[in-house]
Amino acid sequence: MTDAACHRLYDSGVSNRVEREALTGGAIPLAVYGLGKMGLPLAAVFADTGVRVTGVDVDPEVVASVSAGDAHVDEPGLDPLVTDQVDAGRLSATTDGPAAAANATVHVVIVPTLVGDDHEPDLSTVEAVLEDIAAGLDPGDLVVLESTVPPRTARDVVTPTLESATGLDRGSFGVAVCPERTSSGTALRDIRGQYPKVVGGIDAASTRAASTLYEPVNAAGVTTVADATTAEAVKVFEGIYRDVNIALANELARTSDDLEISVLEAIETANQLPVCDIHDPGPGVGGHCIPNYPHFLMGQIDVDTPLTATARRVNDRMPAVVVDRLGRELDAVGTDLENATVAVLGLTYRPGIPELRHAPALDVVDRLRARGASVVATDPLVDPDDLGISPLPMAGLPDADLDAIVVVTPHTAFRTIDWEAVDPLVVLDGRNALDLEGTHHHVLTLGDGSREGTNRHSLRARLDAR
Ligand SMILES: NC(=O)C1=CN([C@@H]2O[C@H](COP(=O)(O)OP(=O)(O)OC[C@H]3O[C@@H](n4cnc5c(N)ncnc54)[C@H](O)[C@@H]3O)[C@@H](O)[C@H]2O)C=CC1
Ligand SMILES: CC(=O)N[C@@H]1[C@@H](OP(=O)(O)OP(=O)(O)OC[C@H]2O[C@@H](n3ccc(=O)[nH]c3=O)[C@H](O)[C@@H]2O)O[C@H](C(=O)O)[C@@H](O)[C@@H]1O
């Protein structure tokens, strides 16, 4: 192949420099399957480096909005980037996966990978995309998996599926795993190089091709690992580390009453050592990532994983821990949870992100109701009414007839609440996020060492003052 004819990355036969120039000059067409929270930022960033990108999504509204130059995902900096790239003709969108596959020589898969009710990984969206890709896969094409998947998916699912659907042999096309290491709210920054891009292929040529693909995108560089399974494991391990670490923090927080110390203070002080990085206790672990990723390992291999499994159970128990604690504290001030009206502050799984998947607040609401409490809720990003929960606007807090408030997700908007204007209440600040020092409320947080019936104040101010 001559340099001028470089239209692919896998086994192109030309130098890395020529491949890169062809890629960023728009000569190597790329399809991104899945234009969601991570897929759209990724597609836009690729286009911004000069790559010609077709985004594929099954949702016609998503495709219509991207085609009009609008970002349907609320991510800092994304909307103008999408507008610019669509205007420049580098980014387009379609619902026609097979047609996009036929035109592309690099295929990037970034659709959701979920876990079913039986805790089994559900790869059906990835498999649906593979069907589209197979319809247009040619020798020399490269398939990149950005979706988080159980280790061995590229080797044992993606490659054989493409082989049998196309009749092509392994080695005539490339498959690499390049996991998305980004976070909602900082997606563009993360994709462009907050951390190195991890790349592992099913063969050396796939690893090389995927490295070339990401070098122009990621300023922090590319970390190549031994193979695709290692790359898959890196991402799953990162998630398990977080889940296990949070479970440790939650377990330690539950010891606080018995030890009669503030575990939060102890954790913060222990973390002064560089070898110690205990995470924050809280009312539970939500989102579609961290609660799911452990299941990508547990039960998927012939080795038992008791620590990972226990961490999942510890974290899943936290909404019950919160409701039990609230029940005891209300008891101590002479109120039955059964007859109480409780306001839940923050429903989304983390602050600033309008996502409810596995949100611990929903479990807290269910458990409060199961104990007979009336529940109202406030969230600046979602309407509680849509979830069958009575809404309480933040401005209505002072006039509401409440017995308790549980802060599950500390949106920044809650910092503006005038707590002195709210009648004295039991406030369970599940994230130790509010500074209620000196207010007339009966304030407690997980891990604060409160004894039942005593009035403890948030440690936040003291810890922040350090
Ligand atoms: N959201 C996050 O914070 C992070 C997500 N990830 C991983 O990135 C992957 C994608 O996640 P998100 O972007 O958050 O998902 P998302 O749910 O925001 O978006 C997925 C998009 O894929 C589309 N889609 C579904 N089936 C399709 C198909 N067959 N063909 C084409 N499009 C299809 C949906 O319509 C949707 O627009 C997942 O594997 C996730 O684990 C990784 C790091 C962070
Ligand atoms: C540190 C970080 O930002 N991890 C990311 C994680 O994103 P995610 O949006 O799920 O947020 P997260 O901060 O891990 O929080 C998950 C859940 O855990 C809870 N949580 C988090 C940290 C902590 O110390 N204690 C705690 O209880 C949060 O409240 C939330 O309910 O999962 C993403 C993913 O893997 O998909 C990953 O790319 C991101 O890097």
From TrEMBL:
Gene3D superfamilies linked to this entry: NAD(P)-binding Rossmann-like Domain (3.40.50.720)
Molecular function, one GO term: UDP-N-acetyl-D-mannosamine dehydrogenase activity
Composition bias, Basic and acidic residues: 449-466
Pfam family, one: UDPG_MGDP_dh
Reactions it catalyzes: UDP-N-acetyl-alpha-D-mannosamine + 2 NAD(+) + H2O = UDP-N-acetyl-alpha-D-mannosaminouronate + 2 NADH + 3 H(+)
Keywords associated with the record: NAD, Oxidoreductase
SUPFAM superfamilies named in the record: 6-phosphogluconate dehydrogenase C-terminal domain-like, NAD(P)-binding Rossmann-fold domains, UDP-glucose/GDP-mannose dehydrogenase C-terminal domain
Residues in UDP-glucose/GDP-mannose dehydrogenase C-terminal domain copies: 343-436
Span list, region Disordered: 447-466
Superkingdom per UniProt: Archaea
Enzyme Commission numbers on file: 1.1.1.336
Family to which the UniProt record says this protein belongs: Belongs to the UDP-glucose/GDP-mannose dehydrogenase family.
This protein's name: UDP-N-acetyl-D-mannosamine dehydrogenase
Organism: Halovivax cerinus
Classification lineage: Archaea, Methanobacteriati, Methanobacteriota, Stenosarchaea group, Halobacteria
